Amino acid sequence: MPLAAPTVTAVDTHCPYCALQCGMSLDGARVAPRDFPVNAGGLCQKGWTSGELLTSPSRLTTPLIRVDGELRPASWTEALDLVARRLTEIRAARGADAVAVFGGGGLTNEKAYLLGKFARVALGTSQIDYNGRFCMSSAAAAGIKAFGADRGMPFPVTDLADADAVLLIGANPAETMPPFTQHLRGADLIVVDPRRTPTAELAGLHLQPAPGTDLALAQGILHAVVADGLLDKSYVVSRTNGFEELWRSVAAWWPERVEQITGVSAADQRRVAAKLAAARNTYVLTARGTEQHANGTAMVNAWINLSLALGLPGSKGSGFGCLTGQGNGQGGREHGQKADQLPGYRKIDDPAAREYVAGVWGVPPESLPGPGRSAVELLEALGTEDGPSALMVFGSNLVVSAPGAGNIQDKVSSLDFLVVSDLVLSETAAMADVVLPVTQWAEEDGTMTNLEGRILLRRKAIDPPSGAKTDLYVLSELARRFGQPDGRFPTDAETVFTELRRASKGGVADYSGITYDRLRDGEALYWPVPAESHPGTPRMFLDSFAHPDGRARFVPVDHVGPAELPDAEFPLQATTGRVLQHYQSGAQTRLVKELNDVVAEAFVEVHPDTAARAGLAEGDLALVRSRRGETVARVRCVASLRPDLVFLPFHFPGEGRANLLTNPALDPASRMPEFKVCAVALAPAEVVA
């Protein structure tokens, strides 16, 4: 008699980390890769080990409240009652804007949507923003200016497999999203990065501009395109506006002048222009390295200008795109947790948008607050006379991830009341008055929108530990305590998504035609999806751009350099980034033994000559100082690094926080802080025995 077929318990889902959202299957806490288009059966080390956190002894499983300076266990009723009582008192004493909400780019679409609704309807506060402001905001602002809409990659990742040439600026996917690199194998890869990263090692040509000079480099390459007769004139005439005005600013940026500023030879600038123009299928891709600057929006627009001059955006087989970083960095900025935004990528100061969304929510339009402060400005205002005195944090670890982290820690410490909803006791949660233990990726249903604008259903695979609740439960229970009617804040993810569909209908990011059933059936749905009969939009802009006249815009920009230059006291420049083994603030990955065993502490990459001049050698502890603070990190000597540059990963807490150094100077359009360059000094650290 044949044996019965084994019961299949594995659940198809997606990785909890970056915006690639690799397909995987989960059987309990056991991870297996899945043949999904973006990863084609591959996973990085973080993905392979992601199941370990599901059984981690560091998981929070009971609410904590602060009593006599110490966090102690409490019941959910006790914790939520305390939150409601204290926030009600603070709102009564100082007004609705005395309470702020801070979200995250890793939250599901349902959570991001309900969080924005909760802030504006249940709390009535305008003070809501999220950590995606640290990530994709400059690319989003630039895309809206040029194309009329922001979708990081307006084409599927798999299109890159047919690329003949790819220009990759400020991106290191070989470490940050390794399965992505398989899509670049057939292309002539050109990488722009001050560091010789693992991604740069894959390139046929690596350009190493001085930090903060990417915009000048883009101008030099564009100048070469025009001067050498490589401009796609028919595309410029038929599909764009503003080239003549643009050229008046670019004409002064001839490659030899740009070489003096960037250090990239004029010959290499012309070589890049020729390679991109000669290739049949060409893509230009940007990421955080060229975006996280005080002029990051202008930097991205400079690369878009180059792409438009070559006729790439909206052309089949070619294009311009931005590599989103956080797991739901795309969806997280579309549905209302940004200070100036309502669901569907609507603007909160648009009367028609306010009227429509208020109708979906069942509240008067005039009851909705206006735009609030952006993330850094919100954090800087904490505890001030006219700023919030209470803060609710969902999915973010501010005291590690924010620029000028030491100052932000002081700001958080000054609050009258801090609530953190998290799955582990992060460095920010450890400072809270109330900590609410919530479910994580495999313990709940929800949708994510990956870097190519594809909406994915991340399925529940296991039950959460007893005591952990969903963020949706937290928001629903608190809203009820604030007097909101039953049903206005649902706890079921599919029910929330159904409301999100209605709220996004007619917006730029229109999800109204997407249903859980369509996602369960495996349909590949890229927004906009304006009807249930609509197949989705995998490739945007093929017929027209999102401006009213259907044409893209050249945006004149100019090089200004970093907000902070080196001087005699701080002679070096520091840049920050990620390493393969860790993710964001490291609150989760630092709890995974296999990952932490490889990279367990903060380090600083330094050119050997630079280290020697500072009295340092490989393995020494260095003190890295800026005008805002200092950090201690282990020296790694890297001969390929520019002698004027040091690099620090930002995943580590305490005195190893790279963001103790970084500059909170903001981009005027996106309000993105300048993470990628600041002036520093290097010296041996004093080791206390």
Number of domains in the coordinates?
4
Characterize the overall form. Answer: globular
* Proportion of helical residues: 25-40%
> How confident is the prediction overall: mean pLDDT?
95
Largest sheet: 7 strands, mixed
DSSP strand tally? 29
Computed CA radius of gyration, to the nearest angstrom: 24 Å
Which stretches are low in confidence, meaning pLDDT under 50 for 5 or more residues running?
Answer: 1-8
Assign the CATH architecture of the largest domain: 3-Layer(aba) Sandwich
Number of helices: 22
What is the beta-strand fraction?
15-25%
Give the termini distance in whole angstroms: 71 Å
| CATH fold annotation of the largest domain | Rossmann fold
CATH class of the largest domain: Alpha Beta
- Protein structure class: alpha/beta
In spatial order, strands of the major sheet run: 5-4-18-17-16-6-7
Can you describe what's shown?
Residues 8-56 form the 4Fe-4S Mo/W bis-MGD-type domain. InterPro entries: Asp_de-COase-like_dom_sf, MoPterin_dinucl-bd_dom, Mopterin_OxRdtase, Mopterin_OxRdtase_4Fe-4S_dom, Prok_molybdopt-oxidoreductase. Keywords: 4Fe-4S, Iron, Iron-sulfur, Metal-binding. GO terms for molecular function: 4 iron, 4 sulfur cluster binding; metal ion binding; molybdopterin cofactor binding; NADH dehydrogenase activity. It comes from Amycolatopsis japonica. With 689 residues, this protein is of the alpha/beta class. The protein has four domains: 11-54, Single Sheet (N-terminal domain of TfIIb), CATH 2.20.25; 64-134 and 328-521, Rossmann fold (3-Layer(aba) Sandwich); 153-323, 3-Layer(aba) Sandwich (Dimethylsulfoxide Reductase, domain 2); 572-684, Barwin-like endoglucanases. It is 28% helix and 18% strand. The chain is built from 22 helices and 29 strands. The chain has a seven-stranded mixed beta sheet, covered by helices on one side. Strands 22-26-23-25-24-29 form a six-stranded mixed β-barrel. Strands 10-9-8-12-13 form a five-stranded parallel beta sheet. The radius of gyration is 24 Å and the shape is globular. It starts with 10 loop residues before the first strand and ends in a 5-residue tail after the last strand.
